[in-house]
Amino acid sequence: MQKIFLSVVLLFLTLATQAQNLTSPDKNLAFKFEVQNGIPYYQLSYKNKPVIKTSRLGLELVNNPSLLDGFTVTNTEQKTVNETWDPIMGEQKTIRNNYNELLVTLTQKGQKDRFIKLRFRVFNDGLGFRYEFPKQKELNYFIIKEERTEFALAGDHKIFWMPGDYDTNEYTYTTSKVSEIPSLQEKATIRISAQTPIKNPSVQTPSMMKSTDGLYINIHEAALINYPAMHLNVDAQNLKMSAHLTPDAVGNKGYIQTESTSPWRTIVVSDKAANILTSKLILNLNEPTKYQDVSWIKPVKYIGVWWEYFISGKSSWGYSTETNTKLTDDFSKYKPNGRHGANTENVKRHLDFAAEHGFDAVLVEGWNIGWEDWFGNWKEEVFDFVTPYPDFNVKELQAYAASKGVRLMMHHETSSSATNYERRLDKAFQFMVDNGYNAVKTGYVGSIIPRGEHHDGQWMVNHYLHVAKTAADYKIMVNSHEAVRPTGLHRTFPNWIAQESARGTEFEAMGGLAPEHTTILPFTRLMGGPMDFTPGIFQTDLTVYGQGNRVNTTLVKQLAYYVTMYSPLQMAADLPENYLKFPDAFQFIKDVALDWDDTYVLEAEPGDYITTARKAKGKNEWYIGGITDENKRTATISFSFLPKGKDYVATIYADGADASHDKKPQSYTVRKVKVNSKSILKQGLAASGGIAVSVKEGNASELKGLKKL
């Protein structure tokens, strides 16, 4: 009897707990999956330090038995992948994709053998996992009520966060303990033009944390396709986060038809902050592109008729004094307001400047009819994307741009009327092709139409992808603003070359950005993909335009952004005349590369400082950018990334000794020195200051007489 009883107990334990273990290729990360009493759980540790404690998995469904419990493990598969691939554009010429994988089949015996799969990949820099829904008789269509994925934290971490919101990611960052989020959420939820804050304590992803025992932890998602974006509920008392999907107009969280998958849930972890910035885990979890021809996808350095709209009173997007317009109106009969920026002569001046200084393109906003009452009316037929204002001559400017060897960059502000944009999309893109445009900046300011949908919901996620894929049919590159935050899809859809999706430079003219803001962005927003941050503001004191605020950086920090914030699309955002006042500093913007063979994060701490070096694609040129927060510091730059045994010319752009972001932002120095792989530079940075360095090959005469560093 004792033997029989013991056998029954052992059988019960075997059924109640089914565990699988996996490690990273370098053995530093240890992952465990188990099913306890029918509920799937996982946990993760790094160098024997807990990262994610035991956390449950599953989905709650609408009008359907949920995928939360009653599971047994009916199959497991493991494999190892170690390969390399070359991005079309990127921070590295070649990316290594190396992971150990576990695929678990979970069957619900009580639901007529309904089953799902969980796929886990453990890389040296973290974990990615997703839900997979195979086609089957008992699971074909279903609606998600909520995804119940948990992230049980191992401590009360320091966290850099924005409040959860279905419609905007343009909040400022708050730095606090996880336990402090509920008490700070109301203050952190500042007024934004279109917002839908989550009522319970929550944060957006990418969520960047630092533990008291020195681990850097980043939670986000990869390959967001046909699924709503994920926010994170915060249980501050139990230090637990959980998925919070963006709902649709009727409150549902996702409509799924098998065979399909969820996005990957990603956890990047290291004991070095620099390793977070160099992680390619999110990119590796996205699918390779299926585009056969990618020759038309190229980096773009541009200027624009843009900043003048933000500095008080200089220019306007709208053409006339009318306040109630329709797309069928004859705008030539309206009285001009006298401040319209997108006029033919102004654009020609910008094209001249771009051609003279080697820029690829000129963005022009406000060229098309409809800007008089585009915002705040929740108007569906707001823009047609093909009809210019009377003072904007499309054909004349097309010919002029072509004669200068410069492209015009299209602007499609949708005012978040996605239905209107989709109806007109093919006609708008054909108009671009017919008139020499090969890149478009899209915008989604305001509340979404279809009304009730959200910027981060499944409907809009599919819309953004539809725009990118349709643009590819016309060989057009897309730069989206106010869209859902990126999840590495620029690998799969490489013509979606950049996004804004965060608080960018335009907010410097609307109250200013905190000095620490850009030391946080690379650890948060940029984890998912390149940002069109629009740097390069040299006239940082905006009171000269009659505004009462300033850009909270030194001039040199603006230069450093071209390196610290990766993007193959970079704007010199200031007025052209301001660059002519500082031609030596402007030279760095003209020189700096957009595409890279390699990247080296030399020093970093989220919220404090970042110093990054990059090697230009296919050239023996290197560029370095270093930035700091509101505190002065000394950057230490080792040139050990240079090839050994050779000297190079380094041009150092540094804050002046008396520089400060609030009193003397334009104080800087430029000097040339001789450097090699053994050189080390210690350079002081002003408060909210920076350093920028270009390193190039030099002949004997160029190197002669230079001081060796």
TrEMBL record:
Residues 595-695 form the Glycosyl-hydrolase 97 C-terminal oligomerisation domain. Keywords: Calcium, Hydrolase, Signal. Residues 22-288 form the Glycosyl-hydrolase 97 N-terminal domain. The keyword Zinc-finger does not apply. Its cofactor is Ca(2+). InterPro entries: Aldolase_TIM, GH, GH-type_carb-bd, GH97_C, GH97_catalytic, GH97_N, Glycosyl_hydrolase_97. It holds the Pfam family Glyco_hydro_97. It comes from the Bacteria. GO terms for molecular function: hydrolase activity. Residues 1-21 form the signal peptide. Residues 306-502 form the Glycosyl-hydrolase 97 catalytic domain. Monomer. This is Glycoside hydrolase family 97 protein. It comes from Nibribacter koreensis. The lineage of its organism: Bacteria, Pseudomonadati, Bacteroidota, Cytophagia, Cytophagales.
